Amino acid sequence: MQVLNLSTPSNPPRFSFFDLGFRAFFLGAAAYAVLSILIWFFVYSMGYQMPQSSITTMQWHAHEMIYGYSIAVIAGFLLTATKNWTGIQTLNGKPLLALACVWVAARITLFFGQIVAAAVLDLLFTLWLSQSIVAPIIKAKQWSQLAIVIKLLLLFVTNALFYLGAMGILAQGVNWGIYGGLYLVIGLILMMARRVVPFFIERGVDETVTLKNVKFLDLSSLALFLIFMVLELGNLSPQFSAYSAILLFIVNAIRLVNWHTPGIWKKPLLWSLYLAIWFICVGFLLFGLSYFLGISKFIAIHALSYAGIGAITLGMMSRVGLGHSGRDVSNPPKAVGIALGILILGAIVRVFFPLIDASHYLLWISISQGLWILAFVTFFITYLPLLTKAKT
């Protein structure tokens, strides 16, 4: 008779949660994507009152999507990418745990209205993260990567403006902090997309393909985005801001046409990134049309944020999480495609349904919130074992 062996494996998977930045911060970002939007659902749809008075609940929601969720994804990505670029180990072990704790503490203190404590913790987090990235870049003399660090330091500045506004020191500080942070994250995404999306597509599709990049389009996109950002933040000329937004749509739409190949639609980790950048393009178009047709800018903002930032960060976390944990990025778990599909559906509901039927606006918001939560719950459950334990 055969005896069933129930003994513990000789080499159980090693706990590796703090081995590299993407593990802790991707799971943390996903968990916070669920928690923060769940809170926002009860606030926006159910009338829940948050325990703070220095900022509005809308301002808390906007701030946390940028400086809570988005920057956690950025942290995980940059701490991991910097090690790849330089060959130098970035934060891991106890220092990485400490950095993550600062991020969590900032979220908690801001939720309970402790503005000064939240400001200190939040700004400390960004400075510590910046130092952790810039040190190996300088040591390896990879000066071209410093452009990314500059954007991270600018996020420190815009977040500081937000807190100065929340403390009543700077009249326009809260708005500058929220919108400045949003545009910086979009700018960072466009810069990284130019680097990685064509690369991912060329190597990810089944067919052999060489995608076209045009330097004029790259330079035009950068210049137009800087003009758009300055005009919007300074409220200088709504008309010229609208023109710059429409031109941004055209330039980036041409780039996306150049990056298209039919093979992407077979790969969730490719079509999600591609559609995310299309949503950012749509966001620019809606910004322009808001001036000429009276479309709400909040719809344009959510095309950039929910649809653009949400889809591209979920797609990047899915890809990086697989690749850097030793899994095959060309064959992701089926749940990955499901999560990305749910989020894209939520983006469609959030952006396009209010344009079609504004009378059910609250319903569309609630549905899109539910789909966002479902997408990130699916990601979290799928990636929890992958990111907490080393592959055996």
TrEMBL record:
TM stretches of this protein: 20-44, 65-85, 97-125, 146-170, 176-193, 240-257, 269-293, 299-322, 334-356, 362-386
Pfam families: NnrS (PF05940)
Keywords: Membrane, Transmembrane, Transmembrane helix
Record-given protein name: Uncharacterized protein involved in response to NO
